[in-house]
Amino acid sequence: MKYLIVGGVAGGATTAARLRRLDEKSEIIIFERGEYISYANCGLPYYIGGTISERDNLFVQTPETFGTRFNLEVRILNEVVSINRAEKNVLVKDLRSGETYTESYDRLVLSPGAEPVKPPLPGINQKGIFTLRNVPDTDRIKQFIETEHPRHVVVVGAGFIGLEMAENLHQCGIKVTIIEMAEQVMTPLDYSMAALVHQHLKTKNIEFYLNTAVSSFSKAAERIAVTLSSSKTIETDLVILSIGVKPDSHLAKDAGLQTGKTGGIVVNEFLQTSDTDIYALGDVIEFENPVTGTRMITYLAGPANKQGRILADNLVKGNRKKYRGSTNTAIAKVFDLTVASTGVSGKLLGEMNIPHIDSTIHTSSHAGYYPGALPMSIKISFTPDNGRLLGAQIVGFAGVDKRIDLFAEAIREKSTVYDLTEIEHAYAPPYSSAKDPVNIAGMVAENILEGVTRTFSWREISENSSEDLFLLDVRTRDEFQLGSIEGAVNIPLDELRLHLDEIPHNKKIIVFCGVGLRAHVGCRILMQSGFAEVYNLSGGLKTFETASQKQSNEDIFAHDYIGKDDLIYQGTQKNTAGPSVEPGKILDVDACGLQCPGPVLKLKQTVDQLKTGEVVRIKATDAGFFKDVKAWANITGNELIEVTSEGAEITALVRKGKPSAHKDSQKDGRNGSDATLICFSDDLDKALATFIIANGAAASGKKVTIFFTFWGLNVIKRQHKPAVKKDLFGKMFGMMMPQSSKNLGLSKMNMAGLGSKMMRKVMKNKQVDPLESMIQTALDNGVELVACQMSMDVMGVKAEEFVDGIQIGGVATYLEQTEKANLNLFI
Ligand code: FAD
C-alpha cells in the first residue's frame, strides 16, 4: 500500500507515525511545502515573547529524525499543486528547483491546515505588517523586533492568538493596541464573560478598541498609519494581523472533492472525503458539531492529533473507528487570567434559535479559608427541558483547566446539569472545595430547572422598563453605600422578613447581592411569602457591573498616561517614592479568596479596630476590590495610600483617617475646593459656558467634574461614531437628537441652525477655541467628564458614541464629587 500525506505538522505527522506503527511494510511519503515538520505552532507566540527561549525547542521532530524513526520519506519544500483523482496521482512542485513531478498513491491523506485571513485592505502588504501561522512568520516577526526595536504594535483581531500575541509583545516591552471589530474580545465567550477579560486587559495597560475595524494602512514617515472605521488614525511601528483563519482547501476544491458552506472539506465519520481513496483531517475539514448538529470547522491542535490516530486506523484496518466530532474545547492564557470554553456559547445558541438557559456563578479555585484561593467565574448553558449541558465558559486564575475538561467531557457524553451536581472530584483544601465549582454550577442550574429559583440576566435589566422592575439589593448597608444598581432599594437579607410590606406585588422583583448567593436566599424568602414574580440577578452585581461598564479603553497612550475613563488602571499607578509608612507599623490582613464584598468588609472591620493614623495592608484577589477600595476610602474619610496589583493579587495600603474629618465635610459641604457642574442642556451657548467655566476652574487648580445628563449627553458625542445596536426608542431618540457637538443649536436666535454657524464663525474670527477643542483641553487638564448612566439608558445613548475619555457614572459618582466641592453649577 502506498500512502501520500499532504502536510507534515499536527494532523499529517500524527497520521504518518500511527500508520507506520500499524503497518511496517507500506510506503509512506509526507509532502510539506515548508521547511519544517511536526513543530509546535501553539508555542510560536511564546517564542516571540521569550518565554520559550530556545528556538530548537519548537521542533518536536526534524524531517531527518522523523524519517529515520518511522522509516518514511519526508519531502520538505515540496508542494502538492494538484490531485488527479482519475489517475490516482498528485502533481508536486519542488520549491527549491522549481521542477514538477507526479507521484502516485493508493490512498491520499490531506492535512494542509488553514491559512490566515488577509483582507484586501489598502496598504496591507507594506513593511512591518505580519501574520503568524508558521515558523518563517515567527522568524520574520522576531527579527523585526530585534532589528527595528518597535515601541508600539497594533494587533488586529482579539481572538485567542491575537491576545496571546498581545501578551507576548507586551512582555517584550512594546506598547500594545488591539483593534477588534466585534463588541468583545474572544468571540467563543459570551459578552459578560469577555467583559472580565476586558477588565483584566485594562489592568495590564493594554489599549483596545472594540466595535472598530481597520479600513486601511499607509506609510507615515518611518511608521505605519492604521486608519480605523471611525476615521481615526493610529501611528505604529508594527502590525500583527490575527483576524482569523480559513481552511486551505483549494487543492480539494480543484480536484472536485465535496466542500461545505464553511469552505472546509466534507468528510464522513471515518474521515473519508467524497472520494473513498482520499481522507482528510485537521483545520481543513468541516464536521458535524455534536451540540448544534451543524457542520463546523475546529481550528484546534487536539482534535487534529486525535483524528490522525483514528484516520490511520481506518486506513490500515478498514473503516472501523468513528470520529464523534469536536466540542471546540479551548483554553488560553491572557496575562494572569486563564480563559476557557467548551461547547456552544449562549450567544451562538441564541443566534441558532436553540432553546437554552444560561447561568453564571462566581466562585473560588479552592476553599476560601486555605491561602491562595483565586476568583473563578463560570457560565453554563443548558436545555430548558431536560437540562442537557450545551456549553461552558470559565474565566479565572487557577484550576480553570481541570474544570473546563470536566465540562467538556460532560458535553461530549450528553450529560445534564443534574449529572454535574454529582460529578465526583478529588478534594483537599489547597485544590478545591467539598463542592467543586463544577458541582455548584450544576446545583444552581438544577434550582433553575426545578423552579426553586428564577434568574434575570444583567442585559434584561436595561431591556425592561424600570417601572416594571423592583430592584432589591439584599447586601448590607455598608456594601450598598459603595454603589449599587441605579434605582435599587436596599433591604439587607437578615432584615428582609421584617420589611416584606415594603415590597410591591405588582412588579418583577429582581433580587441581587454581590454574586448571587445571598440573593438566592432572599428569593426563597419572597417566593415562600406569596410574591409571584421573583428573580435572582444571574452572576449578581459582579456580572452586572463588569458587563455594563464601558469596555474599551482607547486613547490610553495618547498622552502617555492612562485614560481618565479607566478607574481600574488609574489605581495601579504606583507612588514612585514609595508609601511613607514604616514597615513595622503596618498591620497585614489577608482577604484573598474572599468574594466581593468580603475584602471591603474585612477592611472595614480591621480599620474599625485601629487608631487614627495607623495603617493596614490588605491583600485581596477579587478584581472589583481595585475600584471598591478607592471608593470606600473616599466615602469613609480614610486615606488610600497605594493600591497595586501583581498577578491576581491586589494590595492596598490604607491609613485610618480622623473620624470627625469626613463627617464635618459632609455637614457643611463647603470645605472642599473642587468644582462640579451639571450639563443638562445641549444648547451650544450653554455647552460653551460649561466648558469655559470648567477650564477656568481647572486652570486655577480646582479638580473639576462635569456630569452630563439628559440632553447634555449630546455635547460629548463624537462626530464619527461606530455603529451601535439600539432598541426602537434608542433609534428614535438618536434620529431626533443632535448627532454630535458639531450639530448643536443656540438657545436663542438659532434661526434653523444659522445662529450657531454665525456663533462658530465669530468665535473663529476672535480666535476663541471651538467647543470641540475646549472639550479636549478640559480632558487634557484632568477635568472629569462623567456621562449619566441612567440618562444614557433612558435615551438609548451608548458609551461608544462619546468622544474618548468619558467616564460613565451614576448619581453616586456625582454626589461623591460634590462633597468635595465649593462650586456647584447646573447648566
Ligand atoms: P497544520 O498543523 O497547520 O499543518 C498544515 C501543514 O500543511 C502546513 O505546514 C503547511 O505548510 C502544509 N501544506 C499546506 N498545503 C500544502 C501543500 N499543498 N503541499 C504541501 N504541504 C502543504 N491549537 C490549539 O489547540 N491550542 C493552541 O494553543 C493553539 N495555538 C496556536 C497558535 C498559533 C500561532 C497557531 C498558528 C495555531 C495554533 N493552534 C492552536 C491551532 C493548531 O496549531 C492547528 O489547529 C493545528 O496545527 C491544525 O493541524 P493541521 O494538520 O490541520 O494543520
Number of distinct helices = 26
Counting helices, strands and paired strands, the structural category is: alpha/beta
Biggest sheet features: 5 strands, parallel
**Structural Rg:** 30 Å
Shape: globular
Q: What is the helix content?
A: 25-40%
Which ranges are low-confidence, i.e. pLDDT below 50, for 5 or more consecutive residues?
560-577, 660-671
Q: What is the count of β-strands?
A: 40
State the strand order across the main sheet: 3-2-1-7-19
Q: Return the average pLDDT rounded to an integer.
A: 90
Please report the distance between the alpha carbons of the first and last residues: 86 Å
Bound molecules: flavin-adenine dinucleotide
Beta-strand percent range: 15-25%
Can you walk through the features of this model?
It is a single chain. By secondary structure, this protein is an alpha/beta fold. It has 26 helices and 40 strands. The strands form ten sheets. Strands 3-2-1-7-19 form a five-stranded parallel sheet. α21 (684-699) runs parallel beside α24. The longest helix is centred in the middle third of the chain and has 17 residues, at 301-317. The protein is globular and about 90 Å long. The chain starts with a strand and ends with a strand. Flavin-adenine dinucleotide binds at residues 6-7, 9-12, 31-34, 41-42, 44-45, 79-80, 111-113, 132-134, 161, 248, 251, 282-284, 299-302, 304.
